[in-house]
Inverse folding.
């Protein structure tokens, strides 16, 4: 995929960069999603800087214009045990390289594809946008049951709040279910109290 992007190939030849390379298995699992998005996917896996593990955790913009940053994190255990992640993908191993200009480059092999989202507008979508029309943002899981309850309770404002917030959205389709089935959403999670962590962004690892 890299060979299809002339600008990216030049970047890899001359500049200090970090590349996150998914394994073949990871690419095969996401191949259906990748088709038609090859250039965006590749650019989203490249940072215009050398991201040493000693600098984790931090977030960094990618080579894909308009995309969200990548979140690099470290999970520590007993003793000196550590695991490193980029977004949800686990870093399996790393390799050092040198560009044609003599600058250091890093390659991290990861176990998942990093899926970029690029807004077609100048503003990113709100949580309500994602909940209301998930298919427009490459969200495949059905959210219509929860969407129905949010609107029924008049809680749209909650999902439009500005700031760094984390939402937990239960998966479930509302189409074809009875009214009682829709009411059962409250048994999964309380829309008023449990779906929002204000001013907090969580990285899933």
């Amino acid at each position: 995929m890299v060979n299809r992007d002339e600008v990216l190939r030049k970047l890899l030849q001359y500049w200090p960069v970090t590349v996150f390379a998914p394994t073949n298995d990871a690419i095969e699992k996401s191949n259906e999603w990748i088709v038609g998005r090859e250039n965006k996917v590749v650019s989203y896996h490249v940072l215009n800087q050398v991201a040493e593990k000693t600098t984790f955790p931090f977030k960094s913009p990618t080579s894909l214009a308009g995309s969200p940053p990548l979140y690099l994190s470290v999970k520590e255990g007993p003793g000196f045990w550590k695991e490193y992640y980029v977004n949800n993908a686990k870093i399996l191993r790393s390799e050092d390289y040198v560009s044609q200009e003599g600058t250091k480059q890093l390659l991290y092999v990861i176990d998942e594809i990093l899926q970029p989202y690029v807004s077609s507008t100048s503003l990113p979508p709100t949580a309500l946008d994602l909940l209301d029309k998930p298919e427009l943002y490459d969200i495949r899981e059905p959210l219509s049951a929860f969407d129905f309850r949010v609107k029924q309770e008049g809680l749209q404002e909650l999902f439009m709040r500005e700031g760094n917030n984390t939402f937990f959205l239960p998966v479930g389709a509302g189409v074809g279910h009875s009214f009682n089935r829709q009411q059962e959403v409250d048994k999964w999670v309380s829309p008023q109290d449990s779906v929002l962590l204000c001013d907090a962004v969580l990285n899933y690892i």
In short: The longest strand covers residues 89-98. The two ends are 26 Å apart (CA to CA). Residues 61 and 69 are 4 Å apart (CA to CA). The first helix runs from residue 6 to 14.
